[in-house]
C-alpha cells in the first residue's frame, strides 16, 4: 500500500486583486476550499480512491455559488448555463467528459458516469443530458443556477461579441473553474475539472475543461493535472498532457515540467492561467502566471495550505 497520500484543489486562476477582495468574501472562499480539502482528504485516509476524492472535492465546489461550476456557473450568450466537466484515472487511463449540459446539478458526477457506465469518453449536449436522466442523476431548475451578480455581468455584454474569462480584471466579482488531483493509498492518480465556461460565450463553445489532455489528465507513470485559465490557449498547447509528456520523455520533475508549461510555453502564445498537479510520488505543484489562484493542498508528509494570492 502506498503511504504517500496527496490532494490538491483549485477554484480558478486570475487577476485576483487584494484591494478588491472583501474580508468576508476571502473568508468564504477559504472556508469552502478548506471544507473541500478536508472532507476529500479524509476519504483518502480511510482507504478511498483518488477518483472518489477528486469527485467529492469538485462536487463541493460545484455546489457553491462562489465558483464558476455547477451552481455558480456563468451565463452563456443564449442566457443559459452550459457546463462542462471531465474526470480521469491514471492506472488504465480511463476517462469521462461532458460538455454543453444544462440543468445537471453536478456535471462531474455525470462525467464519471460516462467513464464508468458507458462505452464512450465524451458526451455533449442533449445526448449527455439524456444519459444523465438514464442514470437518474439529479437535475435542478433554472432558479437554482441563477445568481444576480452573474446575471448583471452578462447584461453588460449580452448581444455583443465580447466575452469574459474567469481571469479578467473584474474577476473578484466573478468565479472560477474548479478542479482536483489526488494520489491514493493504492498508488493511483486521478484528476477532475468542472466549469461553466465564459460569460457570454457563443452557443456551442467547448473549452479545455472537457477535453482530456488539454484541461485535465492523469497517468500513474507521471502525474495528475487540472487546469484553469484561458481555455483556448490551454487547448492549443494541450497543457495537461504536455506536463505529463515532459515528465515521461524529457525526464523532468513535476516542478520543472509544470514551470516550463505555465511560465514559458503558455506565455509564449499569450495564454494565462494556472494548474494543480501531483506526481506518482505525491509531490504537489500549483503554478500560475496570473495575480492569483484559489488553491489548497494537503499531503501525508505534513504539507497543508490554503491560498489565493502569490506567496
Automatic annotation (TrEMBL):
<protein>
    <submittedName>
        <fullName>Beta-aspartyl-peptidase (Threonine type)</fullName>
        <ecNumber>3.4.19.5</ecNumber>
    </submittedName>
</protein>
<keyword id="KW-0378">Hydrolase</keyword>
<dbReference type="InterPro" id="IPR000246">
    <property type="entry name" value="Peptidase_T2"/>
</dbReference>
<dbReference type="InterPro" id="IPR029055">
    <property type="entry name" value="Ntn_hydrolases_N"/>
</dbReference>
<dbReference type="GO" id="GO:0008798">
    <property type="term" value="F:beta-aspartyl-peptidase activity"/>
</dbReference>
<dbReference type="Pfam" id="PF01112">
    <property type="entry name" value="Asparaginase_2"/>
</dbReference>
